[in-house]
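Take a careful look at the protein record below. Let me know whether the structure tokens fit the sequence:
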Amino acid sequence: MSESTPRLSKPLGHDATRLRECIRALVRRFAVAERADVECCGVTVAQAATLEALLRHDGALRLGELSTLLGISPSTLTRNLARLEERRLVERVADPADRRASRVQLTAAGRAAAGEVEQLEQQLAAAILANLPGADAEPVLQSLQDLLIATRIATESCCPGAFDHLMADGARGCCRPPASRPPASHGPRAGTGTDRDPDTGDDDD
């Protein structure tokens, strides 16, 4: 352990271990459920994420913008788009601002597929909330928001701005800490970005 690494007390160290284990289990279970949902729609998880990102923005996006939104490399996005184009779920259109560039947008079939995936994910989320003790979702949702804010603060010192790139647009606002909160002086070092899932080992494509 380096001198700059904070030493954790036994209670805090135990809580940190519990946090890691709970998040890891939650991510894996969501990944399994998400994979089952998108397979019903005939796409991979990465392809479904691409369709949903285009659906949320409701318009044509440049490849650079889309890869940033998804947090994946341009080469991975290109492979995903090639498969989606083969199925006629997305199409490339001319960029009116730059004749040398192109944008990508959903086709009618792609919009329908994205909507189906979105509906399945909403149903899963609703089923989870319905099974909470007392069916009271607000405390859990507030705690998740607090966790996202704490994660953003803890990782900002080592990777400025990286957290925002990895968050979907709809979640970014809730992760920004209030102005009154002091910035973290030294957060734990985050791992380097990659297109491989850290828990499942799956590539994005």
In short: Residues 135-189 form one domain.
